[in-house]
# Entry
Amino acid sequence: MGADEHVTAAAERRTPTDDRHTSFEELIKAQAFGLGFDLAGIAALGPAETADAFAEWLSRGYAGDMDYLPRGAVKRRDTRTPLPGASSAIVVALNYGGTAPSGPVARYARGDDYHEVMWDKLDALHRWIEVQLSRAVRGKAYVDTGPILERDLARKAGLGWFGKNTNLINPELGSFFFIGSLLLDLDLEPDAPFATDHCGTCTRCLEACPTQALVAPGVLDATRCISYLTIEARGEIPLELRESVGSLLYGCDICQDVCPWNLKFSREATEPRFAPHDTIAGKDAHTLAREILAMDDEGFRAAFRKSPMKRAKLKGLKRNAAVVLEND
Ligand code: B12
Ligand code: SF4
Ligand code: SF4
# Structure
């Protein structure tokens, strides 16, 4: 595209609903909220500011068996690489929090698979932008699985700061939210990055972690993290960490449950697809662990087909169930 042809999205957009006082970026965010997202911001694509911290993290072996992290390490250094030609990202957050007590299954995994929910909404946002501009726009939605440092990009889009528990925290929502990004071949006016760290002198998460996986403020040794051990790790849970797993069957929320920002600001998820599935709703760890141990492949598929818990496979869930019953 020559310089003359290079027009910004705002200048390009002419629709009957055009309001001279509302920028296209604001309309995009309003549409994102209309689709059910809780936060939305815009970032210019480019080098990831925390790329060196990520490389250092990998070199310390903190990624454990998550081979996909070093494999995508080069792409993760710069958000222009996953979709060549793209220059902007609309970064969104979808709340999955609430006041329901913590339980054997982490909050994020109690309902439908968040990847599907987020992709559906991001695809709808993408289509809406194309309708507004009356043309096709190259773009791709990423949720969790792409070679992107999502917390880095979300901070850049103004969504929150890196908590000492490593989660991105928003001052009005806490940290119980998913991050999604729509990378677009479109020049959009970026938001200001989130600049302030609101953790202050608090260290509640570091103290509450049962396995001391938070080895320094903002640094997680995943190989000690219960979330990793019960979801990502393919082998046995190390003997010395089994007791600390307690009654956690899948994932861990402890370092977020104790965070004052969640205690004060976490609110009920409004996304209907995040309502807890019957397979797990209202069940204590003991009951659920016994049911999982009795499952065959067909029962597993029927119970967890739409759930993010299928990631651990039946073998992983049975491993976790055995540890939970041992701790009973
Ligand atoms: C690998 C992974 C994991 C691993 C490792 C987690 C980790 N903290 O590294 C495991 C399996 C343990 C995990 C667990 C969880 N995960 Co996870 N995970 C990812 C994934 C795929 C990559 C994260 C990564 O690159 N880690 C490497 C480290 C170095 O990066 P980071 O933790 O993001 O840290 C950044 C900053 O903290 C900063 N940084 C690095 N060092 C330092 C040092 C200091 C001092 C500071 C201030 C900053 C800083 O740079 C880093 C890179 O940008 C992302 C999706 C994605 N593509 O980004 C989801 C993601 C981070 N996970 C998510 C969730 C929801 C969870 C769980 C809550 C699930 C659960 N309940 O069990 C837990 C939370 C555990 C925790 N305390 O982090 C969400 C987080 C949303 C949010 N609000 O932050 C993400 C973004 C997925 C999504 N799309 O929504 N996860
Ligand atoms: S998710 Fe659980 S195990 Fe992992 S760092 Fe947080 S409190 Fe520790
Ligand atoms: S518990 Fe305290 S230190 Fe940890 S993330 Fe929350 S505010 Fe920050």
